[in-house]
């Protein structure tokens, strides 16, 4: 084949256009790689800063910006949830509990300071002994302000019961339970369908009213930990149903012109409404009540929902349905949904009522079916 002068001119033109196109493609790929590497580095730094108080934590969760934090090592390594088996091996429970800590040394100060495992015998012992009240006897009548109200929830109970086909004798967790009546997501289930459960409420005044209702459920005056271990936090109870943990107590109390984080503040009301509260991981409390199969979990804690959900060792428990308030969480609903989807839950829908902005999740039971077919 002869190569003519015209062919040569055409080849030069083709090269003239092809070179910039190839260069642009190379620069684009290089810039993407740089951005991805930079983004990964920033996310890793943020994650390491968050987890520096617990160096063995390895997370596969999504960052609050909604981007994956994946690595080859992470994909091959199990997630760490600060469990006894991660420290002592899977047969740890065969040894006497006092091997890990004598009962005489088991104090809440020790548990907090040493960041004990979620399932440490000392943590479970402390919850049962100091932070858990038994359900009221069936024979004790309810004491409600408005007994004529059949369902005081804001739509959650009916939505969950429709999903669960009006299940009777189920088990729930409600955090926060507030006073056990006002906007309660679980009172209808308990009164009319024979459910039992666990009510968690950190607000001292609200908890006092809660235990006076004679609810047929466990009650606990604690908060759910946003870390993988027990801890003490500062709680702001000045806003009633919007009470919450102070994520940055020094700064927030400084803004309120407080004298210290111990509740010694300028105004009398603040003395009563800002105080220390003990927190435990949800899994610790479930072990204390010996229930890891839950039909419904309602989580409404005014901002810490995402952080709490990240502490849960989902492979250890079976929760069928959840409602999670999302409109006060810094991470937002999308981040919560990605987190739940990564733990085999399906977003069922949103509940938007005058007092509620919540998302409903249902456990993906088909995931078990798919695994059985593999």
UniProtKB/TrEMBL annotation:
GO CC terms in record: endoplasmic reticulum membrane; Golgi apparatus; late endosome membrane; plasma membrane
Name used for this protein in its record: Methyltransferase FkbM domain-containing protein
UniProt-listed InterPro entries: EGF_Rcpt_Signaling_Reg, FkbM_mtfrase, SAM-dependent_MTases_sf
Keywords: Membrane, Transmembrane, Transmembrane helix
Species for this entry: Daphnia galeata
Domain of life of the native organism: Eukaryota
A Pfam family per the record: Methyltransf_21
Domain Methyltransferase FkbM: 174-342
């Amino acid at each position: 084949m002869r190569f003519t002068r015209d062919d040569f001119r055409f080849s030069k033109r083709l090269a003239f256009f092809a070179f910039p196109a190839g260069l642009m493609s190379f620069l684009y790929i290089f810039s993407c790689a740089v951005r991805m590497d930079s983004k990964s580095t920033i996310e890793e730094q943020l994650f390491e800063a968050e987890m520096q108080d617990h160096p063995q934590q390895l997370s596969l969760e999504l960052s609050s910006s909604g981007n994956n934090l994946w690595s080859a090592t992470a994909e091959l390594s199990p997630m760490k949830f600060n469990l006894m088996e991660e420290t002592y091996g899977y047969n740890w429970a065969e040894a006497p509990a006092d091997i890990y800590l004598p009962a005489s040394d088991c104090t809440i100060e020790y548990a907090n300071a040493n960041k004990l495992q979620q399932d440490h015998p000392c943590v479970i012992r402390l919850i049962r002994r100091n932070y858990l009240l038994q359900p009221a006897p069936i024979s004790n009548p309810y004491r409600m302000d408005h007994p004529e109200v059949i369902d005081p929830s804001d739509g959650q109970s009916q939505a969950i019961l429709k999903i669960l086909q009006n299940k009777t004798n189920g088990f729930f967790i409600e955090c926060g339970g507030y006073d056990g009546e006002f906007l309660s997501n679980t009172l209808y289930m308990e009164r009319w369908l024979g459910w039992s459960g666990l009510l968690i409420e950190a607000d001292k005044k609200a908890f006092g009213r809660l235990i006076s209702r004679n609810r047929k459920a466990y009650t606990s005056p604690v908060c759910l930990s946003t870390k993988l271990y027990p801890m003490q936090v500062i709680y702001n109870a000045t806003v009633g149903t919007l009470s919450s943990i102070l994520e940055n107590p020094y700064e927030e109390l400084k803004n309120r012109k407080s004298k210290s984080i111990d509740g010694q503040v300028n105004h009398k009301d603040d003395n009563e409404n800002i105080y220390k509260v003990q927190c435990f991981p949800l899994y610790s409390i479930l072990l204390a009540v010996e229930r890891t199969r839950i039909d419904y979990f309602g989580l409404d804690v005014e901002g810490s929902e995402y952080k709490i959900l990240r502490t849960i060792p989902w492979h250890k428990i079976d929760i069928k349905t959840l409602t999670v308030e999302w409109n006060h969480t810094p991470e937002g609903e999308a981040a919560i949904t990605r987190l739940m989807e990564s733990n085999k839950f399906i977003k069922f829908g949103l509940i938007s009522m005058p007092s509620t902005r919540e998302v409903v999740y249902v456990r993906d039971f088909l995931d078990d079916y798919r695994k059985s077919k593999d």
